[in-house]
Design a protein that fits this description.
This protein is of the alpha+beta class and 97 residues long. It has a single domain, classed as Conserved Hypothetical Protein Mth637, Chain: A. Helices cover 23% and strands 35% of the residues. The chain is built from two helices and six strands, in the order ββββαββα. Strands 1, 2, 3, 4, 5 and 6 form a six-stranded mixed β-sheet that branches. Strand 5 and strand 6 form a beta hairpin. The radius of gyration is 12 Å and the shape is globular. The relative contact order is 0.26. The mean pLDDT is 96. It holds the Pfam family DUF167. This is UPF0235 protein Ppha_2415. InterPro entries: DUF167, YggU-like_sf. Belongs to the UPF0235 family.
Length: 97
């Protein structure tokens, strides 16, 4: 199960990113968080932007509402989805874990 927290009315969870993949997608669970494949290379913040875009599409919100709180230069990232409660996020992320 995905470990979700709530911070100021926004869902927060951990993501393990795998850059330079053949396509961008959510793969499933990884140590209480989500594992994602990202097509972009980790250069010039491209993989971080793609990670935010991936979750914005998944939650059907603008990319500006998805933030990486920590791990900008790491494969393990803490992601916040602004304006989405942890309960609502759990429903969206349920198919992945």
């Amino acid at each position: 199960m995905i470990e979700l927290r709530e911070k100021n009315g926004s869902a927060v969870f951990v993501v393990k990113a795998q850059p330079r993949s053949s396509k961008s997608r959510v793969c499933g669970l990884y140590n209480g968080g989500l594992k994602v494949n990202l097509k972009a290379a980790p250069v010039d913040d491209a993989a971080n932007r793609e990670c935010c875009e991936l979750f914005s599409k998944l939650f059907r919100i603008p990319p500006s509402r998805v933030h990486i709180l920590s791990g900008q230069s790491s494969r393990t990232k803490t992601v916040m989805v602004e304006g989405i409660s942890s309960k609502a996020a759990a429903l969206v992320l349920e198919p992945f874990g």
